[in-house]
Design a protein that fits this description.
The complex is a heterodimer of chains A (305) and B (276). By secondary structure, chain A is of the alpha/beta class. Among the domains of chain A are: 148 residues, 3-Layer(aba) Sandwich (Rossmann fold), CATH 3.40.50; 63 residues, Alpha-Beta Plaits. Helices cover 39% and strands 29% of the residues of chain A. In chain A, α6 links the parallel β7 and β8. With 276 residues, chain B is mainly α. Chain B has one domain. In chain B, 79% of the residues lie in helices and 0% in strands. Chain B is elongated. Chain B starts with a helix and ends with a helix. Classes of the chains: A alpha/beta (305), B mainly alpha (276). The interface between A and B is large, with 56 and 45 residues.
Chain lengths: 305, 276
């Protein structure tokens, strides 16, 4: 699949400090999770993708459009939900959503029609006519998402979309974002909440202190860090464990009938099968420990692969 | 509502506008919203009604002038357009303060400038939108009653004033409206960008209007004005009264300088905050 976001050797300064140190990534997933600790450079990267922040060097392309040269076009075709910014003040929710549509080039009439449609889709009822400054966190998040959807953008950039929501509200919003993804919209989600990223994303970009710790499909991230293999069978005993050690494998635990060893690459698994065949071990099951995304992310952040 | 129903309500993805909207469209959208918000405030509505009073009074004076001439064959010789302009500047300045001072401060206090930045809105477009929201009503409230009064004056006093005379007055009113609109926009929007509170912005703008006034008293009324209030007075008096033309020029330059300074200050402040 072609990358819809391409970043090559991106360097960017905030003040006198370099925040992004030569980031390179090609993001092709329908929904991409942008994950990293506070200060890793997530918001800065989003700013650079939209052309709001100017890079010192490097190349950015979003949906085939170079940034910052075609930044205004990128911003027109993007729906952005910013974490730190609220809802346009001074009016009701529907006013704010309509205004967001007008800023993206819609006529007033069309913006109003689409504002109601977006708010309907987000289950915002009569509250839409209330002044937006009195909204609860959940309502505010819905209004913000409606503002980012009102002009039917080709892709969405969502910065912490579920922050501050109660569990039912969070699930509802996540499901809606997933529906949008399944409709064909590309989504970049910046989040600290890894279960949200796991629920939504098929690709992941992990940032660690302004560098890329991992970039690629989520299953690769999880699979690559799940290095522990569990064996059950007859003939699995201490001598088999010794034979595996002699063949260069790292045996973690051994007990009669069960054994665990570490294997990150295919060659190590082939070695296991060779030793098992030589010793006539009847292997009934060989399973890999499934690492959670959280473990995988933490490992990747520590290793900085 | 179920997820499927929600998705159906939202409809299939319709391509977003393929090209970025033109600056004029975005400026108009910002100005229109600002005017809509202002109109909900009672004070602005009252000021607007107050600004309609001078033209109404001028129309009555016109009728009285004609009646006096017909009754006792005595012409008051009082020109309503010039008088209207001198009086009308005051409510228009108040309306400009009411419209401009909360506009940027509100966005700054609510941290929504980044919301503009992630849309096709540049700092200049934002600034011009906010300025235009002040300039447009200021110019209309100065020009429209002047044109109306000039037309009335021409119709009622047709035997006393010529059409060309009225046209010159309308041209002067148009020029003064444009310059005053730009100046008032700068004096009210600039302070709004300098603070996060509308009330502080109002105080700053009033200070900008009043603080330079003593210099006019100290250096004499023929001296060049440095404040927007005395510059407005100079411009109007020179265009519609007997003051030297030099004062119209200096008054215009001072007002344009305030407009430019207000725009630059707003643009600079906004650019700093239009980022994550």
């Amino acid at each position: 699949m072609d990358a819809w976001i391409t970043i090559e050797n991106l360097r960017l300064d905030r003040g006198r400090r370099e925040v992004l140190h030569g980031i390179t990534a090609g993001l092709s997933g329908r929904a991409v999770g942008l994950v990293g600790a506070n200060g890793a450079g997530k918001s800065t990267l989003i700013g650079a993708l939209l052309g709001v922040l100017r890079a010192k060097s490097g190349r950015i392309e979003v949906m085939g459009m170079p940034v910052p040269e075609r930044a205004l076009e990128v911003r027109t075709r993007a729906g952005v939900m910013a974490e730190q910014a609220g809802v346009f003040p001074g009016g009701s929710g529907v006013d704010a959503v309509m205004f967001a549509g007008m800023l993206s080039g819609l006529s007033r009439r069309e913006a109003l029609r689409r504002a109601h449609r977006a708010l309907d889709a987000l289950d915002v009822g009569e509250e839409r006519y209330r002044a937006s400054h009195g909204y609860s966190t959940g309502m505010r998040q819905r209004a913000k998402l409606a503002m980012s959807l009102v002009h039917d953008p080709e892709f969405l950039i969502l910065d912490e979309p579920t922050v501050g929501l109660d569990p039912p509200g969070r699930l509802q919003l996540l499901q809606l974002i997933r529906d949008l993804r399944d409709e064909g919209r590309r989504i970049l989600v910046s989040t600290h909440i890894l279960p949200d990223a796991e629920f939504l994303c098929d690709d992941m970009l992990l940032l660690r202190q302004g560098t890329v710790a991992f970039s690629g499909p989520v299953h690769e991230l999880v699979g690559a860090t799940a290095g522990r293999l569990n064996v059950r069978g007859t003939g699995v005993d201490a001598s088999f464990a010794e034979a595996l050690r002699a063949a260069g494998l790292r045996v973690l635990e051994a007990a009669p009938g069960t054994l665990s060893f570490e294997a990150g690459i295919d060659a190590e698994i082939m070695t296991f099968w060779r030793v098992a065949a030589e010793r006539g071990v009847d292997v009934r099951s060989l399973s890999r420990d499934a690492a959670s995304l959280e473990e995988a992310v933490l490992t990747a952040m520590e290793v900085g692969r | 509502m179920s997820a499927v129903a929600r998705a159906a309500a939202l409809g299939p993805p319709v391509p977003a506008p393929a090209r970025a909207p033109g600056a004029r469209r975005v400026i108009w959208a910002i100005a229109r919203r600002e005017l809509g918000i202002a109109w909900r405030r009672k004070m602005v509505r009252l000021l607007f009604i107050f600004s309609l009073l001078p033209p109404a009074v001028m129309a009555i004076i016109l009728v009285v002038r004609v009646m006096a001439k017909e009754a006792v064959d005595f012409d008051l010789g009082w020109d309503p357009v010039a008088a209207l302009f001198r009086i009308q500047v005051f409510p228009v300045a108040l309306i400009a303060l009411g419209l401009g001072t909360p506009s940027v401060a509100r966005d700054r206090s609510e941290d929504v400038l980044y919301l503009y930045a992630v849309r096709p809105v540049t700092p200049w477009v934002y600034t011009l939108g906010k300025m235009f929201a002040v300039m447009l009503p200021a110019m209309l409230l100065l020009l429209a009653p002047s044109v109306l009064t000039a037309v009335l004056r021409n119709g009622i006093l047709g035997d006393i004033v010529s059409t060309s005379d009225s046209l010159v007055l309308v041209a002067k009113a148009a020029l003064a409206s444009a310059v005053l609109g730009i100046g008032f926009a700068g004096v009210s929007v600039g302070p709004s960008a300098a603070t996060r509170r509308g009330r502080w912005a109002m105080l700053l703008a009033i200070a900008l209007f009043l603080m330079p006034e003593p210099f006019k008293f100290i250096y004499g009324f023929d001296a060049v004005s440095i404040g927007p209030a005395s510059a407005s007075r100079d411009l109007v008096n020179a265009l519609f009264g007997d003051e030297p033309a030099r004062l119209a020029l200096t008054g215009s330059l001072v007002l344009l300088a305030y407009g430019t300074f207000g725009a630059l200050l707003t643009r600079g402040q906004v650019q700093k905050e239009m980022r994550p």
